[in-house]
UniProtKB/TrEMBL annotation:
Name of the protein in question: Reticulon
Originating organism: Danio rerio (Zebrafish)
Pfam family, one: Reticulon
Keyword Membrane among UniProt keywords: yes
Keywords: Endoplasmic reticulum, Membrane, Transmembrane, Transmembrane helix
Transmembrane intervals: 39-65, 154-175
UniProt gene name: rtn1b
Length: 212
């Protein structure tokens, strides 16, 4: 009974942590705090641009060295300051060292089940598309893959990641500012696409969806 109560408490804490993390991520993407968003955005771009010039191992090693240099220097500075002022404030990173970062068995099992669910769903969807269970959906997937061949010819993976990061930190703000106009154009495009799909379903045998 006590073990189950502790597991439930740990699960509640972890859910609260993820909820808080999501809120912080949304605040970063919507630039609620310009300094924090600018720092994260700049750091991500710097890392990605570094990867275009250096190997992953070199970038990781340089980042680790930079972090260690900063923390060691700060630790030595605080130790010297405490010695001069004859104070005992303790370890400067004690607050962060005391933060609980371990995951319980139940939490690990929960996340493993979620990963398993997404993998199984992805495999089923790919099977459905490649084996043409629905012709229209398979054609849409084929068009998407065809477009991606051109995208891959124009950009490499790192360039795409840079573009994704830029879009992540710009599109939410743009959408928030021009939501009405964007929704209007999106509805128009969706209507046109649905109209084309309906025409294809009428003319091509075997493309009509079965009534549920």
């Amino acid at each position: 009974m006590q073990a189950s109560t502790m597991a439930a408490a740990d699960s509640t804490k972890m859910e609260g942590f993820w909820s808080s993390w999501k809120c912080q991520a949304m605040e970063l993407l919507y630039w609620r705090d310009l300094k924090k968003s600018g720092l994260v955005f700049g750091s991500l771009l710097l890392m990605l641009f570094s990867l275009t010039q250096f190997s992953v191992v070199s970038v990781v090693a340089y980042l680790a060295l930079a972090s260690l240099s900063a923390t060691i220097s700060f630790r030595v500075y605080k130790s010297v300051l405490q010695a001069v002022q004859k104070t005992d404030e303790g370890h400067p990173f004690k607050v962060y060292l005391d933060v609980e970062m371990s995951l319980s068995h139940d939490q690990m099992q929960k996340y493993a089940e979620n990963v398993q669910y997404y993998i199984n769903s992805t495999l089923k969807e790919l099977r459905r598309l490649f084996l043409v269970q629905d012709l229209v959906d398979s054609l849409k997937f084929a068009v998407l893959m065809w477009l991606l061949t051109y995208v891959g010819a124009l950009f490499n993976g790192l360039t795409l990641l840079i573009m994704v990061v830029v879009c992540m930190f710009s599109m939410p703000v743009v959408y928030e500012k021009y939501q009405a106009q964007i929704d209007q154009y999106v509805d128009l495009i969706r209507t046109q696409v649905n109209s084309v799909v309906a025409k294809i379903q009428e003319k091509v045998p075997g493309t009509k969806r079965k009534a549920e």
